[in-house]
Design brief:
This protein has a single domain, classed as MetI-like (MetI-like fold, Orthogonal Bundle), CATH 1.10.3720.10. The chain is built from 8 helices and no strands. Helix 1 runs antiparallel to helix 2.
Length: 226
């Protein structure tokens, strides 16, 4: 067996374990919390009072205007100066959540705004409250449109979690860095890590296609029944 292939085979379990224990949970938790934060932010900007909408706009402006790596450094290395100490994983989770929240809020805000006003009027005409109209009429329609951009955001997040290695989270990429430090084979190990990210992204892309098709059929059924 060639040396490079043997090295990849020996390091694969460690890389997969780091991905299973840290990369995947960090991705799923960050995306879930980020979606919740994004929905709250989008609603605040669209329907909140002026001061609340201003705070939401400021949050989105700051997060979208600064690099994610800098945000992680501020949270993990900067906050201790203010007396706030965080372990690496919670710091990364907060950083990614804030980042996803800002970007997903723009997507959610756009898709909610794209729902025709007639849908609001129809919901109100049958006695729905604002909350009922939002949850039963507007958000289900907006979700169908939001699937492609939110799926792309999720796939990007899988790759962005490699930045957590910079704040000592022992995820997949840092596991590769540690093996490189003992084997002195950066090219082979980094290519292997890249291939693992590529496989994960490819799987998620296929799931995205299936999800889009399902939502497209659901939308077709709604239009046929309308």
């Amino acid at each position: 067996m060639p040396h490079w292939l043997q090295l990849m085979a020996e390091s694969l379990p460690s890389l997969l374990w780091a991905g299973l224990i840290f990369t995947i949970p960090l991705t799923l938790l960050s995306f879930a919390f980020g979606l919740i934060l994004g929905l709250i932010t989008a609603i605040a900007r669209l329907f909140g009072p002026a001061p609340v909408a201003a705070v939401a706009r400021f949050y989105v402006w700051v997060i979208r205007g600064t690099p994610l790596l800098v945000q992680l450094f501020v949270i993990f290395y900067g906050l201790p100066s203010a007396g706030i100490l965080l372990d690496a994983f919670p710091a990364a989770l907060i950083g990614f959540t804030l980042n996803i929240g800002a970007y997903s809020s723009e997507i959610i805000r756009a898709v909610i705004s794209s729902v025709p006003k007639g849908q609001w009027e129809a919901a109100y005409s049958i006695g729905m409250s604002w909350r009922q109209a939002m949850s039963r009429t507007i958000l289900p329609q907006a979700a169908r449109v939001a699937v492609p951009p939110l799926s792309n955001t999720f796939i990007s997040l899988v790759k962005d979690t490699s930045l957590a290695a910079a704040i000592t989270v022992p995820e997949l990429f840092q596991a590769a860095q540690r093996i490189v430090a003992t084997t002195y084979e950066p090219l082979i190990l980094y290519i292997e890590a890249a291939l693992i990210y590529l496989v994960l992204s490819s799987i998620l892309s296929q799931l995205q296609v299936r999800l889009e098709r399902r939502f497209a059929r659901y939308g077709g059924m709604l239009e046929a029944n309308a």
